[in-house]
C-alpha cells in the first residue's frame, strides 16, 4: 500500500557559513517549533525529538544545526527573544519624558509584540515567574538593564521633576506595569472565557490598562 506522507528531512551535507535556501528554512522551522514547545510545555519538559517532529525534520537535523538543547535555547534567546525586547527598549528611549508617555509606549509596544508573537506571555510565566524557570537568570542579567532599569530610572527622573506622583515607588511602578500587561495576556483564554467576552481584544486590554494607570501617575495638584 502506497502512502504520500512525506518523511522527515535528514541533515544536508555540512558546508561552511550560515545556511541558505531550504536549509535556512529548516533552521527557522526548528526555532519556531522550539519556541512553541518551550512556551506551552516548558523548557525542561521539551525534548529535541518532539521539537524535531513538530518542525517536520529528523532529530539528527537538530543536532546538525544546534548541537544540543542548551545551544538551541541560546539560539532562541539570541535570535527571537532578545531582538524583540531590544526593539521595545529602543522605542521607549524615543518616547517623551512624561510618565504617561513612558507607560503608553510600554503598553502599546507590548501589545504589538504579543499580537505578532503570542508565545511571549506563556513563556514569561513558565520560564521567568515560575520557580526554577530557565529564563530567570536571563531576565536578571540581560533583560533588566534593557527595560525595567530604563523605565525605573526615567520614572525616578520624572518624580524628581514633580511630574510623577511622589507617593509612588518608581521601581514598583515598573513591577505593576509589567504585571498589568504580560499577566493578562497570558491569562486571556481564562478571563475571556470566564466573562464570555471575546470582544475584549488586545487593543481593549491596552486601553484599559492605560486608563487604569493614568490617574495614579499624576502628581497632586497644588491647592
TrEMBL record:
DNA-binding region: 47-66
Region (Disordered): 1-24
Residue ranges annotated for the HTH tetR-type domain, each copy included: 24-84
Pfam family, one: TetR_N
Keyword terms: DNA-binding, Transcription, Transcription regulation
Record bears the keyword Transcription: yes
GO molecular function, one term: DNA-binding transcription factor activity
Gene3D superfamilies: Tetracycline Repressor, domain 2
Keyword S-adenosyl-L-methionine: no
PANTHER family per the UniProt record, alphabetical: HTH-TYPE TRANSCRIPTIONAL REGULATOR BETI, HTH-TYPE TRANSCRIPTIONAL REGULATOR RUTR
Official protein name in the record: TetR family transcriptional regulator
Amino acid at each position: 500500500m502506497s502512502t504520500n506522507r512525506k518523511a522527515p528531512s535528514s541533515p544536508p551535507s555540512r558546508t561552511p557559513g550560515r545556511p541558505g535556501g531550504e536549509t535556512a528554512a529548516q533552521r527557522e522551522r526548528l526555532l519556531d517549533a522550539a519556541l512553541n514547545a518551550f512556551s506551552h510545555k516548558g523548557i525542561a519538559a521539551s525534548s529535541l525529538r518532539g521539537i524535531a517532529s513538530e518542525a517536520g525534520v529528523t532529530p539528527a537535523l537538530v543536532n546538525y544545526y544546534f548541537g544540543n538543547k542548551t545551544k538551541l535555547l541560546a539560539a532562541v534567546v539570541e535570535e527571537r527573544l532578545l531582538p524583540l525586547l531590544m526593539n521595545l527598549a529602543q522605542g521607549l528611549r524615543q518616547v517623551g519624558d512624561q510618565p504617561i508617555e513612558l507607560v503608553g509606549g510600554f503598553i502599546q509596544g507590548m501589545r504589538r509584540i504579543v499580537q505578532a508573537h503570542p508565545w511571549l506571555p506563556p513563556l514569561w510565566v513558565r520560564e521567568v515567574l515560575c520557580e526554577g524557570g530557565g529564563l530567570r537568570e536571563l531576565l536578571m542579567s540581560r533583560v533588566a538593564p534593557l527595560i525595567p532599569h530604563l523605565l525605573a530610572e526615567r520614572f525616578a527622573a520624572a518624580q524628581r521633576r514633580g511630574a510623577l506622583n511622589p507617593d509612588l515607588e518608581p521601581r514598583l511602578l515598573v513591577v505593576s506595569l509589567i504585571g498589568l500587561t504580560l499577566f493578562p495576556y497570558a491569562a486571556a483564554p481564562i478571563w475571556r472565557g470566564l466573562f464570555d467576552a471575546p470582544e475584549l481584544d488586545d487593543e481593549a486590554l491596552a486601553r484599559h490598562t492605560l486608563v487604569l494607570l493614568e490617574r495614579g501617575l499624576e502628581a497632586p495638584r497644588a491647592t
